[in-house]
Amino acid sequence: MNYKMIGKITAPILCIEVVFMIPALLIAQVNHDQNAVMAFTRTMIITLAVAGCLGLATRNAKKGFYAREGLVTTGLVWIVMSVLGCLPFYFSGEIPSFVDSLFETVSGFTTTGSSILTDVEKMSRGMLYWRSFTHWVGGMGVLVFLLAIVPLSGKNEGYTLHILRAESPGPSVGKLVPRMRQTAMILYMLYVILTVLDVLFLCAGGMPLFEAVCTAYGTAGTGGFGVKADSIAGYSPYLQNDTTVFMLLFGVNFSCYYLLLLKRVKDVLHDEELRTYVGIVLVSAILIAINIRGLYATLGETLRLAFFQVATIITTTGFATADFNQWPALSKTIMVLLMFCGACAGSTGGGIKVARLILLIKNFRRNMNQNLHPTQVTTIRMNGQKVDEKIVSNVSAYLIGYMGIIVVSFLLVSLDNFSLETNLTAVIATFNNIGPGLDMIGPTGNFSAFSDLSKLVLSFDMLAGRLEIFPIVILLSRSVWKK
Amino acid sequence: MKIIVAGGGKVGSVLVRQLTEEGHEVTIIDKSGDVLENLMQEYDVISVQGNAASMEVLEEAGIRDADLLIAATDMDEVNLLTCLSANSLNPSLHTIARIRDHDYRSQALNMQELFNINMAINPEYQAAAEISRLLNFPGFFNIDTFAKGHVEIVSLRIKADSHLNGTRLNKMNDIVHSQVLVCAVQRNGSCIIPDGNFELKENDLLYITASTTNLTTLLKNLGIITKKIKSVLIAGGSLLSFYLAGILERRGMNVTLIEKDHDRCVELAELLKNTTIVEGDASSQSFLESEGFENFDALVTLTGLDELNIVMSLYGNYRKIPQIITKLSHAENNRMLDSLPLGSVISPKELVCNTIVRYVRAMQNKVGAAITIHRIADGQGEAIEFEVTEDTLNVGKPLKDLNIKPNILIASITKGDKNEIPSGNSAFHKGDRVIIVTTKTSGIRQLNDIFVS
């Protein structure tokens, strides 16, 4: 294991984090909030010191960076970033407990949106901005950002692929163009453009700029931190529908947008994952709308709420406009199932991902057929292309790891003795990076009542969910730390 | 530049390495997913899986915006078809195809025109030509060609009994009586750019610039090898061996070729009229002895196994065969092998890659950019060829008046067909080709970089 190289990549990431804190610092300064300004300044100094030490200690790092270094780097970077990123909340005293601050920050970076705050509106503006901005940073990934701006390696190295693969969601991550740096730049360009569009649309609907920017960050990263106690529910129907559309857009694989730029519209329209994703959204929303008819005054409102709730859950955002805790059992069940499903691979959303579900179903169908015709040889295809057997078996392994983590976390969280529904959905909602669950942690509730142990377990789940298990779980493996 | 490489085999992977190193955007096409995965993990490239000759696959690889396609799959026919399909999708595309089957050799030029191929490459033939050049000038380890073949940089090791042992460079011309210049010396593993007071020692490896016509004089006056090579033993009956035997046959040398496989022996015997084809195992020493091993003037080991080639060359050195040439396909950059007396080392894929890289550089045609770069002294030194343009500084001034950075030597100036080994009074003019020799770390990218600013 090339520890020095790992440190060498972590150092610039921390510098990037400091740069990312500057806007929040400025907002605190503009609002004459000396407490927040001090908290940010102290955090930035500490982070720079850590980055400086790391940079000095690893300046003579040897080359040699392979798949395992890529995984370990990604896992470690996210943990270090979260620990340092939570310091402003802790130093300012706006979140007094360190574990709570960490939970909130991990929830931000992993674009989960689960909160321990009982009253969001009491937070200062600088802190609110930083809280929402962590969503935006975590959505596309900070390592991908590093790949886009820093020529890390010589011209000749393919190892950056390991980083992209470890940080980006989906069963088979590839590049868009030959150069890694350009690939990362294209991804971030698309991300920025879509975010700016969202801000513009929100402002056009009368939302104040600060709220529009924070809401757009939450939408873009499919995170879900709002700046209002009632999330999006207080805004006009136009703003709600606008957010529905943008949540769904950020749940689409970004390579589809790149194909659109290349005018390959046909390829996008025939994309199996995209079609399935749209299909699931339409069917679920209509089923729910039928199920909850009568609860709301008009058909328009019913459809708006149904679509919003489906979009917020399937893209794993976690905004709320209606308390689906109060909905009939069928609707609640559909919502929980959507939590597992998740958005498209290569989007900013979490969950199992539609692409993996398609592969799992196809693999199941193949095994069924093989029971009927034991000698039959078939390949699994996606968009007409053969899917490598390694990817298929990787998806199965992922599912087993996924189930294993849910079981263990469920057991640990149950120690807190809340209702079964609360405990189970807490694990599902954090692990799939959604945000709200059912019962106590429903759209109107929060996670503050959990014990510190549960909060740490859930933080681990959020990281494992965002990075798709392997980069985080590998850190627990002995062979990583053994010389 | 956007470059598509079809085929990720030996040549394909070396190409990917060289081209990404030079900063090009490379897309690689191969049928095997494992090959692509390995290349993607090692180099910054993107891959497309499939048959490169299929238009659909080429479209996916982005053929429409590509500048160059290099078809290097292991089938000549696929390569030709790939170029044809690619050209129909993008008429302004440059194409390079590997065509190595000897059945097509005579029609290579026709096919190039027919399939609209800009360059046909044949690694085996190129390697055979290179080996035959080395056999023509025995005593040199390596010959690199510049300025369209008018200038060569040869390398030469100083033995204990050499006239040059202990000589200072400014006295060297009194011994060799011809216009040559020592442009780099490899001593104890490091590369030195020498000045006139440099004293040569035993075991130095000299890199010497000379015009092609002066090489024979140089050899004679140095008195290293007096004997012209008349008989050559080739081990292995590959395509490369076949090409080499053909070239040497035409030069009137006595060629003996050892091949294990009976059918291949029969095939070679049909094709090569004047070569003695011997069926047998080249790794068996008693068999080699029975063929009169130590009486050959040169041994060329060209079997498919690097290890076998190395062992045979060592044995040849032990039995004091004057000239030894070893083919290495995988271990060509292995520093461990430097200390072994393997004679000249030849790597067909590296040779052909250099040719392609030169073509790519010529395509880019940046003002002042290097036309040719040869790595010398195990990659620690570089010989770079530039063309003098109107932007070049100090045109027409005598070299002795120029302020040139340390560790840089102007090794040759070529005006049209005439080559000049520069002295203090020489000067270069617009349109001339200048060869600079320097250490690898100097970072010279343009001719103007050599002047102290």
Q: Would you identify the CATH architecture of the largest domain in chain B?
A: 3-Layer(aba) Sandwich
Question: Share of helix among residues of chain A?
Answer: 55-70%
Main sheet properties of chain B: 6 strands, parallel
Q: Taking all residues together, what is the mean pLDDT of chain B?
A: 84
Number of strands of chain A: 2
Structure description:
- The complex is a heterodimer of chains A (483) and B (453).
- With 483 residues, chain A is mainly α.
- Chain A has 22 helices and 2 strands.
- Chain A has a two-stranded antiparallel ribbon with strand order 1-2.
- Chain B is an alpha/beta fold.
- Chain B folds into 4 domains: 2-121, Rossmann fold (3-Layer(aba) Sandwich); 127-222, Alpha-Beta Plaits (2-Layer Sandwich); 231-321, Rossmann fold, CATH 3.40.50; 355-450, Alpha-Beta Plaits, CATH 3.30.70.
- Chain B has 13 helices and 22 strands.
- In chain B, the strands form 4 sheets. A 6-stranded parallel beta sheet of chain B has the order 3-2-1-4-5-6, with helices on both faces. In chain B, strands 14-13-12-15-16-17 form a 6-stranded parallel beta sheet, with helices on both faces.
- The interface between A and B is medium-sized, with 21 and 18 residues.
List the helices and strands and how they pair.
The complex is a heterodimer of chains A (483) and B (453).
Chain A: H1 3-30, H2 34-57, H3 67-85, H4 87-92, H5 98-109, H6 125-140, H7 142-149, H8 160-167, H9 180-204, H10 209-220, H11 237-250, H12 254-261, H13 265-269, H14 272-291, H15 299-314, H16 329-341, H17 354-372, E1 381-382, E2 385-386, H18 389-414, H19 420-431, H20 452-466, H21 470-473, H22 478-481
Antiparallel strand pairs in A: 1-2
Chain B: E1 2-6, H1 10-21, E2 25-30, H2 33-42, E3 46-49, H3 55-60, E4 68-71, H4 76-89, E5 94-98, H5 108-114, E6 119-121, H6 123-136, E7 142-146, E8 151-157, H7 172-176, E9 180-187, E10 190-192, E11 205-211, H8 215-222, E12 231-235, H9 239-250, E13 254-259, H10 262-271, E14 276-279, H11 285-290, E15 298-301, H12 306-318, E16 323-327, E17 344-346, H13 348-364, E18 372-376, E19 381-387, E20 408-415, E21 418-420, E22 433-439
